[in-house]
Amino acid sequence: MINQNKIVTINSRKFDGNIHRSWKAEFIKKKDSLLTFVGEFEQEVKHSHLGVIRRKTVSYEFYWLDRWYNIFRFHEPNGDLRNFYCNLNMPPTFERDVLDYVDLDIDVLVWSDYSFEILDLDEFEENSINFNYSQEIHNQVRKSLEELKTMIANRVFPFSAF
């Protein structure tokens, strides 16, 4: 088991295994299948859907070893909730200070008022053909998207008060 408060590498991979994004985060805790990390944006980022993410924005990251999504909770540098960002992905692996997951393209952007939008459905369809996603992947993505929508509507952790 990894030590708490240890800096680890998180890799978001495409279906072919290539790293799409990689960053460092601090491991906070493990509870059952849930792994929690925290990171901080070292520089300003311009995102097509999120707008400008300011330097020092804090990201709490929730990964389940048995679920097909992860959830990021972003807080402004002053501590205010900014938004949530959910990635649909294959369940991650976590070993030797590295968490790896295969991103399956679809994202759910949740604002602080809990309104949300589903992003990149077209990218999922395109990559579904390019990478020949199996029927199981399609089923898991559909099921996970419905689960996320229910969690948002019912304010289930990590969408609950904190």
What does this structure look like?
This protein is an alpha+beta fold and 162 residues long. Helices cover 19% and strands 48% of the residues. It has 2 helices and 11 strands, in the order βββββββββββαα. It has helices at 121-130, 135-154; strands at 6-13, 19-31, 34-40, 45-47, 51-53, 58-64, 69-75, 81-89, 93-95, 98-111, 116-119. The strands form 2 sheets. A 7-stranded mixed barrel has the order 1-2-3-6-7-8-10. A two-stranded antiparallel sheet has the order 4-5. A hairpin with a 4-residue loop joins strand 6 (58-64) and strand 7 (69-75). The longest helix has 20 residues, at 135-154. The protein is globular, with a radius of gyration of 15 Å. The two termini are 27 Å apart. The relative contact order is 0.16. The mean pLDDT is 92.
Biggest sheet, in brief?
Answer: 7 strands, mixed, barrel
Tally the beta strands: 11
The whole-angstrom Rg is: 15 Å
Tell me the strand percentage band.
over 45%
Reading the helices and strands in chain order gives: EEEEEEEEEEEHH
Estimate percent helicity: 10-25%
Question: What is the rounded distance between the termini?
Answer: 27 Å
Instruction: Supply the number of helical segments.
Output: 2
The overall pLDDT average reads 92
- Which class do the helix and strand fractions yield? alpha+beta
| Biggest β-sheet: strands ordered side by side in the sheet | 1-2-3-6-7-8-10
Weakly predicted, low-confidence segments: none
